[in-house]
Amino acid sequence: MMRPGRLLLIVLLLAGLLSGPGSALAGIEDNPLQPADTSSPRATLQGFIETLNDIHAEIRAVVKSYLASSRLYLSTQEARKIDHLIQRLEIVRRTLDMSDTPAALVDRLSDTRVLQLKEVLDRLDLPDFESVPDADAMEARAFKRWTIPGTEITIARVEQGPRAGEYLFSRETVQRLPEFYEKVAALPYKSTATAGWYDRYRYGGGGMYKLIPYRWMLNLPDWSKRLVFDQPLWRWFGVFLVLLTATLIYLLVRRGVTAWAKRGSVPELRRQWAQLTKPLTLLALIPVVVHLLAENLRLTGIILEVTTLSLWAVFTLSLTWAVWLGSHAVAESVVSAQDMHTGSIDSQLVRLGLRLIATILSIAILVIGAQQLGIPAYSVIAGLGVGGIAVALAAKDSLANLLGSLLIMFEKPFRVGHWIKLGDTEGIVESIGFRSTRIRTFYNSLVSIPSNTLVNSTVDNMHMRQYRRVRTTLLISYDTPADTVETFIADIRQIILDSPHTRKDRHRIRLDDFSEFGLQILVNFFLDVSGTKEEQVERQNILMQILKLAESMQIRFATPVLAAAPDTPATEA
After folding, report:
1. Pairing assessment for the beta strands 419-422 and 460-461 based on DSSP bridges
2. Is the pLDDT assigned to residue 148 strictly greater than 80?
3. Can you give the pTM of this predicted structure?
């Protein structure tokens, strides 16, 4: 059985070894900006092995100092040394070509791949470094790649991208490292190997060395170290605790925000802002959960990949959700602050503009998020393009109505509250939407007219009239004297002229015709008023004055008498 001191040594090695990226230096401590030497397969292989061996030896000295003390945690000086060695590990990570790895997994998987490669190399008979081709030897070769003899582990020159010209462990090699490790895991270590790193990384609690003393971690009961889906049981308890805590925080935030939304004078607006807290809470919690699971609890293998990618996928969707809900909340806040009518064109333009911005941002977020998850951007864009064409073909009428709504909003032929006539439909505009316009008719029905129909039809906007015409015909009896008729017409004209709300230059008051039932007097004039309500009031005032005038002059209005036609049979009594 492994001695406790040895076990603690390995655990602490892993604690400092793989917990985060930093500035790289390959044994040259006076220059923290010294890059990895990847000028040839020899430099890459030699730098990888020697840097890891050197880090191992330095951490060993730190561990000896820690074991000789009674302290629970590392001293300040020891912790700084560990942090410095963690920074040096970047030199090792940068010898791997991780370009095919999803960006969301690079930081997590690079540690695992480094250890897997070290485990494989520690079990192989490697050639002397002098026999590995250097930069001059590679210049003479047609193929800029070198494979370790007897293996499929290849170091190849990168041909494109920011690291073009560097010799790195190839993408194919990095992808197949789990397979290579499984094949050599049963082989014995070579004499120069640093044994046990990968197993302690997978099953130890290295990521929590700043939170929980390793002396406590070493004393965990054996049952807590049993493997379930390649993870020790204590780690699953930690995962459960992290997820439970995150869920409780989410529910508490939602409960508090829901209570806040019910207060205030504008509950609907508060409700929209309250809805925004759902994705915002997820955006705050997910990075913390990912860090705890990957860096502290150190999930590994397929569990790490599935968990990390799933959480970052939820993060991307939550960010898209937040942008969309945020555009709605901001739009309603602007409409409310500016006292705009809910269905007015101005309010619809505010909503449309913010929704358009939200749509563009959402597409950008989805494309970038897909890249982070390992889905090529061109695939996402192509998919959106094909999907857009399919949607456009399936919803061409809806798109035509949307374009029609945009034309109505920008040209503004009418507004909410205007009285318009459209064919057989006449009424007051109640709302202007992105698909249709709703008109409340004068018999109180609600008519929805598609926007595409509106822009292709003749709309008579009665509200936009500068003057409101009043045209009516008065029938007075034939026994009215001619002088009285003439005076009556002159007095009506004077009523029109005396009114402060009539147009003085356009009025027609005259004897128009001899009808079957009486003398027909035409009364035609224009009212200068601002709205329908004022029009009705002034129309009534003038008509009442005419009625009183007729009474004062004892003029009788003729009443049509409908007689039965001569050939109409008489009805029975």
Report:
1. antiparallel
2. yes
3. 0.67
